[in-house]
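# nightly structure sweep
# worker-07 picked up a monomer target from the shared queue
# config: single-sequence mode, recycle default, output format = structure tokens
# input follows
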Amino acid sequence: MISTELRNLLVSHSPLLFSTTKEKEDWWRNARNNPEFKPLLDEVRNEGRRLLQEKEQELTYSLFRLFTENGSRQEYEKVYFQKRHRLTTFTLMVLLEPMNKEYVTALENTIWSVCNEYSWCLPAHLKNSSETSTTIGLSLGEHSVENYSIDLFAAETAFSLSEIVMLTGDVLDRLICKTIYVEVYKRIFLPFKTKKYEWETQEHNWAAVCAGSIGSAAIHLIEDPNELATILERVLPAMECYLKGFSDDGVCLEGYGYWQYGFGYYVYFADLLKKKTDGQLDLFDDEKVHQIALFQQRCFLNQNHVVNFSDANPTASVFLGLSHYLSKVYHDFEPPERKLRAKFTEDHCGRWAPAIRNLLWFDEALPEKSWGNGTNYYKESQWFISRHKTELGSFSFAAKGGNNNEPHNHNDIGHFILQRDNEVFFKDLGSGLYTKDYFSEKRYTYLCNGSQGHSVPIINHQFQDEGASRFARIPQADIGNDVEIFELDIARAYDLEPLQKLTRRFTWVKKDLPKLVVEDTYSFTEQPVSIVERLITPSLRITEAEDEVILEGKQRLRILYDSRVLYLEVKRLNFINHSGNMEENLALDFTVLNPVKECNVQFIFQFE
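# output follows
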């Protein structure tokens, strides 16, 4: 689409969140008086009062250089995101209490502080950038807007400030408003117009968040249709690249948290673009986008537990505003139970875009119900997910094939999750603490990323290898009322020439108390040195008996196996999770006592 054609579609000239000041005032007045909004608004008010008593921290050079010195991200990012949280909170408080000058002052000071930051990017995203270059001796004119980097959070900051000035510009000092325009143009619009960024062609959340944020900010701030069309002409192909990262089945291989993040920003931009073009450009009118939207209701296992393959957390909350919006776009999108709602303080990044939409898009009239029974097999992504509810509880099983070069990849071909109610018996560790090394060549030395931290075999003392050439084939995937089968050929996951065949067969028997049968069949060209069947569990009570192991927490799971074939050793594995907290997990290592060229191993996991 050329700029002229795009320009002619940009027909709306009114603000896109509220058409008039009166409409805005009426909405907030109604929300304040609506009992359904009270829990949401009370969280904002409580946080607003707390933050007024807390001194704002600044992003010092000492914090900025820590990532370069020791690879640590936490110290700088804690202050950075706390500042964004203040920005979001004080803006909402100004909208809730427009006559309270204390909140207006606090908001103006936070905006001033953000606009005076050295960079809106995180240090971890400034590798080989002009902001971290130590070259001295620039001549007049050498330093231009092209030297600004744009990462996720720089783009998000521009989106936040642009929307904030649209909503509160009538109460902010004019110099504050001008500063927002100047900094967004200088740091974002002008560099984006003149420089290509790597994320524009990436097929994951960066493309959606960066491009979507820039496009949204431009829709809010740029009045000239030619200039706006020039920006959007770059944004739209990046959004298309984001969609290329999904198969037609809509599975987000990065995990639910990145669905909520990346697809959320896709939706925020698509909504503004649709309004700006009076419905003529509708990015929702696409079957792949439809399937991506349905990923949320398909990946939750029970209550707040999700399928957390890749860099995803094992539990999650939902953005209720985003969910209510999508339920009005797609007839088969199922709104979640309100108890799954993300509380205002849950987002450690303090993001503005989802926070405001969790209010504006919340619809108290929508029904709510739990996501029920169901099994889905995603052929392209090779995910198998089953929810089975009986009078005795809720039972969930999930397994994956795929390849070892996926976004936020873990080497986890053949890995599985098994749980009852909210108790996980076989788990995915999920995301570890993000550091410099976490995204380096050392990535797979981390327990959570390498196959050593997953419920998959260790063969001849070797773990799975990374790369797109390491992939699974699916000989069988049968969904049924009583018995379901998911079989994978996972031999290619290992860089082992003697390994000719390795099939992992899951048989999920859905009774009142279901059982899972896992059977691995090996074929080698020569006798293997060793085979260890590793299973990853939380730190549960373990009782060993002949031919069985009992895992016990609030519930019990019995593992049946042949002790003449397998020897069990229990190992404790420490793991630093994404929040920086130490988790203790267990590896149940079942060693094959007599590994031969053709061998078979079977486990039966029976709920009690």
